[in-house]
Amino acid sequence: MKKIFILSWFDKSTVKHLRLPFSFYLMPVFLFALSQAGSINWLTTAIAFIILHLFIFPSSNGYNSYQDRDETSIGGIKHPPKVTRNLYFATFFLDFVGVLGALFVSVYFSLFVLIFVLMSRAYSNRNVRLKKNIRSSDF
Q1: Residue 3 confidence (pLDDT)
Q2: Residue 46, class by beta-carbon neighbours within 10 Å (0-12 exposed, 13-18 middle, 19+ buried)?
Q3: Do residues 13 and 62 make contact, with C-beta atoms less than 8 angstroms apart?
Q4: What was the pLDDT predicted at 23?
Q5: Could you point out which of 15, 94, 97, 101 has its C-alpha 20 to 30 Å from the C-alpha of 110?
Q6: Which of 66, 73, 72 is nearest to 22 (CA)?
Q7: d(CA 97, CA 123)
């Protein structure tokens, strides 16, 4: 029986599909929300930032790439590599760590992160494909 090491899921192709730099394009939204807070707990803010931008958003990008099997330019990658099963497992691992880590902020934050993960998966999943029902003309 072959041993599976979690780190082996994060090969070069997988890391590219997580599109970490692309996840930081959402940073202005986070900073705007932060600017509206009356008081700030910097520790929980930093934890929330790390959870969203290093775990949840990259996982969402990776899962979307896995489902779409993109071969043309996507989110900052001109020539995306072929997706592998490692990407699939890595996205679940990142989501798991993100939802658990969100408990350090609060139970409510963790619940909302879980809801985001589930909605993101439904948006991208080939069987559910919420993506196909949303048109830019609807906005």
Answers
A1: 55
A2: exposed
A3: no
A4: 82
A5: 15
A6: 73
A7: 21
> What is the spatial distance between Cα 116 and Cα 46, in angstroms, rounded to a whole number?
19
Indicate left, alpha or beta for 81 from its phi (over 0: left) and psi (-120 to 50: alpha): beta
Report the predicted TM-score, pTM, of the whole model to 2 decimal places.
Answer: 0.83
Q: What is the per-residue pLDDT for 1?
A: 46
**If you search the block for the tokens 């080939």, which residue do you land on?**
126
Task: Check if the beta carbon of residue 86 is closer than 8 Å to that of residue 14.
Answer: yes
CB contact set of 40 (below 8 Å; sequence gap of 6+): 34
pLDDT mean by block of 10 residues, the chain; 139 residues: 64 83 87 94 96 95 85 72 88 97 97 96 78 56
Q: What is the dihedral of CA 31, 32, 38, 39, to 10 degrees?
A: 0
Write down the pLDDT at residue 109.
97
